Amino acid sequence: MALLETSKYPQGSVLGSVNPDLASERQTASFSVEKLTALLDGGTEQTRIRRAVVEAIESDPVFSRENQYFQTQNERYESAVRKAVHLQKKMHEMGWTENGPEYKALAGDVAFLLHRVFMRSISVLGSDKQIAKWIPLATQHKLIGSYAQTELGHGKVAGKTAFLYDTRLQPKFPWEFDSKLSATHTVVFAQLYVHGKCYGIHPFIVQIRSLQDHSLCPGVTAGDIGPKMNFEHIDNGYLLLKNVHIPRENMLSKFCEVRPDGTYVRQGSQKINYFTMTTVRISLISDEVLTPLMKACTIAIRYSVVRRQSKLKPGEQEAKILDYQTQQEKLLPQLAAAYAFHFINDYLQELLNRGYIEIQKKNFDMLPELHALSSGFKAVITQHCTAGVEICLRACGGHGYSLLSGLPSLYTKILASCIYEGENTILLLQAARFLIKCFMAASAGQPVPPSVTYLAAVKHGKCPAKNKLDFLSPDIYTEAYQHVAVRLTSSTAEKLQDLIQSGVNKHDAWNQCTVQLVQAAKAHCHYIAVKNFAETVEKLETKAGIQKIMKHLCDLFALHGIFSNTGAFLHDGYTSPAQMDMVTASYLDLLAVIRKDAVPLVDAFDFTDKTLNSALGSYDGQVYQRLYQWAQKSPTNQMSPAYETYLKPLLHNTLSKL
Ligand SMILES: CCCCCCCCCCCCCCCC(=O)SCCNC(=O)CCNC(=O)[C@H](O)C(C)(C)COP(=O)(O)OP(=O)(O)OC[C@H]1O[C@@H](n2cnc3c(N)ncnc32)[C@H](O)[C@@H]1OP(=O)(O)O
Ligand SMILES: Cc1cc2nc3c(=O)[nH]c(=O)nc-3n(C[C@H](O)[C@H](O)[C@H](O)COP(=O)(O)OP(=O)(O)OC[C@H]3O[C@@H](n4cnc5c(N)ncnc54)[C@H](O)[C@@H]3O)c2cc1C
To answer: What are the start-end ranges of the H helices in 266-314?
Structure first.
């Protein structure tokens, strides 16, 4: 680590002024940062509200993140609970609502994360009566909810847990947030049995602790699952239920119900019971996945214009590391991906809103498409963003590895998003299952949902690009992506059919195709993300230079995907090796163009220094003295008992021999 460099900047001498290396980057912005921020927020009024919330939260000492990096697991948990309880008070005072921007401002800091998923389950799967009973209690925190779905030996959906109508409940051992100490209630996903007949998975509200003294209810065993990679502030717990009785009314029954005489009634699709997962998979993208990538890009890009290493040309001063093409190639595609996924998130939210309106009217037609897109994109975005945060961390060298950079905790936290709410491979296979069905239907001339109509249009042409500039045409690259998605889906569907026709059992045949199915699902999502980005750019205003810079980012996102997956594009000759050289040339040209706006592009994310909580990423770029000052706070600077016990005897022993 190069902390000694702080000697160049006497402690505290320049904090408050902006590092000139960073200041100069802002003077040449080709667009209005403020207007881009408003675009990302969804309007100037939203920006104003978000900033007011951030200001109210950050000026309140209870929400301080100072010393966070030096806290123990118990201190983090206690602080997260304190913040969550205080937030409720503050929300009441300020008139903030559950779905407002305050959770974004506090991302990663408050307890009771799963309380929100508990509430979401009741809102989407509960009857009006259940909503009227439980939601006010939950909103006022008269109970604390959690979400119990995963089983110890089973990560899919409730394999062994069962509720037997009017009889007994079997044990469960899930991973669960907020349950060691906090949760009083949980939504359990379990098989429903009525008079010996299994009706599949259903959600049930189960009280696990007394509301009087917080002791565990009869038949309930719960505890903390032990240390984890991150989420120290959340008490993920295990839960065992044995012979637990719950009232019949506790089965969430907007769509399915057991009547007092044991008659089971269902409206529409049984799969609606999975709907909480669909909504949460989309809801978590913004705060849990995109925000960490945007923060990581902000930290790494600001640092990369402050950090100087080696000389680009002999005789010149040391270069900013962002001036190295390899550094640009690490960071700028991550920045482009952050924007691409921001826009696809808008698309998914809009799809979810539309789908939910229909579902409330008991029209379930959009459910399969919603499931496929939410699953596929949850997997693709979490995977991409996790890799992106790691790239940002490594791009900051040794200082990136310090917790004080903010990057390691962003990484260990975002990594969990590849696993929770459905492990990514499982989700990609769910998306692929939908793709194969739709491909078959489209091939038979049947109608398919809008996002997959392109599967019917199998074209066997060639990429028409003649020179590198042609690859800056959205039509050219979107079509290339579409071609790859269709090819991977159609060839895998053919392989599947061939295997089945040759006598292979259909489950074995499916397993023998899963690697290619995963590729097809990824290609499908990548195609939609590129198409959506290009369409969004098309609709942007040309003013304030925003459309131009967004177009560059869209081109970069698309060409980076081709550049990094050349095999998929070359495979059947749709794109030629000469055209791949054109892609490479355009891609590298774009890096140099976007580099000029890299700092304004991350400034537009509009994170405050307190939100970033990074010694490397602050707005003023005073990296070294902040690192030095923050390091002083480390409790490890106190003399350790290890000195008296081990080092002193060792050193004294050495001394006597000198
Ligand atoms: C709330 C607001 C704030 C939000 C922001 C809060 C912050 C939040 C922060 C992070 C918080 C982390 C919180 C972690 C919380 C957990 O991790 S909770 C545990 C989550 N667990 C999972 O997601 C499990 C993942 N696994 C699965 O979903 C199931 O294994 C699978 C993949 C659906 C398979 O189940 P299965 O019944 O064996 O499925 P399978 O036979 O493959 O499919 C059955 C049919 O159901 C359909 N299907 C499956 N799933 C669905 C679905 N969801 N919809 C529709 N149809 C479906 C299939 O398409 C298939 O249809 P057909 O092709 O037969 O027509
Ligand atoms: C931070 C965190 C918080 C969580 N919070 C909660 C919570 O609040 N409530 C809750 O209920 N759960 C929670 N979970 C659990 C989480 O939902 C599960 O871990 C997740 O769904 C994956 O299931 P699993 O762990 O059983 O993995 P497994 O399903 O055992 O997966 C292990 C490996 O096997 C592979 N695999 C499994 N099945 C297949 C298949 N059919 N085909 C191909 N490959 C397969 C997977 O791809 C993976 O590589 C949490 C997890 C984490 C990390």
So the answer is: 275-284, 291-306
How close is the Cα of 419 to the center of ligand 2, in Å? 6
Assess contact for 602 and 305: CB atoms under 8 A: no
Are 549 and 601 within 8 A, CB to CB? yes
Nearest-atom index, ligand 2, CA of 148:
11
Which of 569, 570, 542 has the alpha carbon at shortest distance from 558? Answer: 569
Does the pTM exceed 0.90? yes
Amino acid at the residue 133:
K
Cβ–Cβ < 8 Å for 225, 238: yes
* Domain residue ranges in the chain: 42-110, 113-267
Q: Which two tokens stand for residue 218?
A: 């009869």
> Could you read off the pLDDT of 374-433 as tens digits, one per residue?
999 999 999 999 999 999 999 999 999 999 999 999 999 999 999 999 999 999 999 999
What distance in angstroms lies between residue 421's CA and the mean position of ligand 2's atoms?
8
Phi, psi of 240 (to 5 degrees): -115, 130
Give ligand 1 pocket residues (Cβ under 6 A). 113, 116-117, 120, 147, 149-150, 156-157, 271, 274, 277-278, 280, 283-284, 288, 367, 371, 420-422, 426, 430, 433
Tell me how many degrees the CA angle 473-477-478 measures, rounded to the nearest 5: 105
- ipTM (interface pTM): 0.98
Q: Which CATH architecture has domain 113-267?
A: Beta Barrel (2.40)
